[in-house]
User: Fold this.
Amino acid sequence: MKNTIVVGAGPAGILAAITAKTNNNNVLILEKNEKIGKKLYITGKGRCNITNYSPIEEFFPMINSNPKFMYSSLYNYTNMDVLKLLEDYGLKYKVERGNRVFPESDKSSDVIKTFNKILSDLNIKVILNEDIRFIEKQDNTFKVYGRANKYESDFLVIATGGISYPATGSTGDGYKFAKTFGHSIKELKPSLVPMEIKSNYLKELQGISLKNIELTVKLNNRVICKEFGELLFTHFGLSGPIVLKASNSISNIGENSIISIDLKPKLSPDTLDKRIQRDFTKYSNKNLENALGDLLIKKLIPVILNESGINPYKKVNQITKEERLRLVNTIKNLEFNLIGLRPIKEAIITKGGVSVKEINPKTMESKIIDNLYFAGEVIDVDAMTGGYNLQIAYSTGYAAGESIKEKSNEL
Ligand SMILES: Cc1cc2nc3c(=O)[nH]c(=O)nc-3n(C[C@H](O)[C@H](O)[C@H](O)COP(=O)(O)OP(=O)(O)OC[C@H]3O[C@@H](n4cnc5c(N)ncnc54)[C@H](O)[C@@H]3O)c2cc1C
Assistant:
């Protein structure tokens, strides 16, 4: 009988454990939290964006770091495989915009319950509240030290996640363990992270969510990226899907770093001007501040008028053409100074991690230490939002588990 220890009960560790378990191989999961899948619980705004429904070849352009490393494991354990596993254990799912898959109930807790059911069905022991502090290998045996207890195994999977959202348990311990085994760690950086902006209007704008807008990032007058979709103003600046996505293209934020928001990207300046003229005819006797409600959400109107330098109390029928064109320009180019990205602990995903050069991409086994495996976010692979990062966790976890299963059968 062989033994496997998996450190970390996130999606990567769970998949590794489920896959490695056989009659010849006992599997034990050690998790520092009081429950499994604490980060999984908050994904997809608490609904759990389980995976993405797109064909697997469409995953690779969505992977920002080391997509080639993921070829083998993603094709070997696909989005359809994890959905089938969950479905077989009773979880119903639905596919939404952007092919994002969610549980039908919209509750991430149902996904976690399903994983718990699978683990208990397979008799996989999970020890909770066990914070692993140190790991070593002596005479082909891994010795795993918790705060009070010591465990031993023939195979070891490090599935401790990244270093973002540390309250979910991912505090970067896996990097430390990997280093003690001689692995190198690619520099850790935030990926998919909100942005800090300088603006006099932050208080007024906070909480506003805008859909179907275009965001442009300009560094030193050069357009770095454009994203279309949904954005949220927060107390420090900007968040929301397109901001997180755009954050990935940004490095070297300097004095001349600008975020420009086009509030009406589907209208050309000329069409927008005509549209405003129609509203002006309709509301000709009103103050300007009361004439833009058909076009803009209420909280934005004072900001737009202030930025355009137009008196909000001026009667619409007295607005000059020049003022109107300034209004058009502000609506299409609402600019803010970008002062920075939020810290790594607020990033959706950690960029960097255990170098893929030292991991076998087919099995996730260390090329340095036999029978040592890595799975999930601890590896230097990260992707865009949309379920891709979770799929990376399942597929790498599966690859590790499958290799351990094969080896434990051979031994
Ligand atoms: C707010 C938010 C939203 C997200 N939304 C999405 C989304 O919609 N779609 C998507 O694909 N991805 C999303 N992600 C990313 C996704 O959650 C991660 O990529 C994924 O959870 C990584 O899985 P993992 O198993 O590698 O690590 P984790 O899920 O972080 O699990 C690692 C586990 O290891 C445990 N651990 C760590 N150190 C130790 C130790 N020393 N001893 C014992 N246990 C330890 C931790 O407690 C944790 O339970 C989101 C992330 C965040 C923060």
Observations:
- The mean pLDDT is 96.
